[in-house]
């Protein structure tokens, strides 16, 4: 079997094999992926993955309640003292988005319930033959992006949202010959 060709480092290979396109309905993990994908905007995923442990430490393992309570001073400390991407807007978006996730959890029971409602609870399992066939965005990511922006989320453009949906397993974009594709596991 031929694996996806995009993982170019050991760190990326581990992410590809253990997390990418794997269904995960844990709100804390989902919030982490949403935050990390937002941090990626304009950068490579590898850059973000290399900083993941620093992000986890800085944002208290992406505990939604703790992130929602971060003060401006704490956010500035994260920006200056941790090995995270220094973009002020991206750092502040973690708190903003955590507050909005809490609202979604109250309304839908969980962030996972809200997101999975867009696909009626069933993952989209694509059958790509080459990684070059994988789109950067789709109608689903465009719709979810618009809806998240309407709610007030930051750093949730259609391309970011598409990568986010892959990261939590709503979309499986492993190439069909990859042993990590849903049909081959």
Care to describe what's here?
The radius of gyration is 16 Å and the shape is globular. Strands 1-2 form a two-stranded parallel ribbon. It contains 10 helices and 2 strands, in the order H-H-H-H-H-H-H-H-E-H-H-E. The longest helix is centred in the middle third of the chain and has 21 residues. It has 185 residues and is mainly α. The mean pLDDT is 97. Helix 2 packs antiparallel against helix 7, helix 2 packs across helix 10 and helix 6 crosses helix 7. It has a single domain, classed as Orthogonal Bundle (Endonuclease III, domain 1), CATH 1.10.340.30. Helix content is 55%, strand content 2%.
Task: Offer a quick outline of the entry.
The protein is built from ten helices and two strands; from the N terminus they run ααααααααβααβ. By secondary structure, it is mainly alpha-helical.
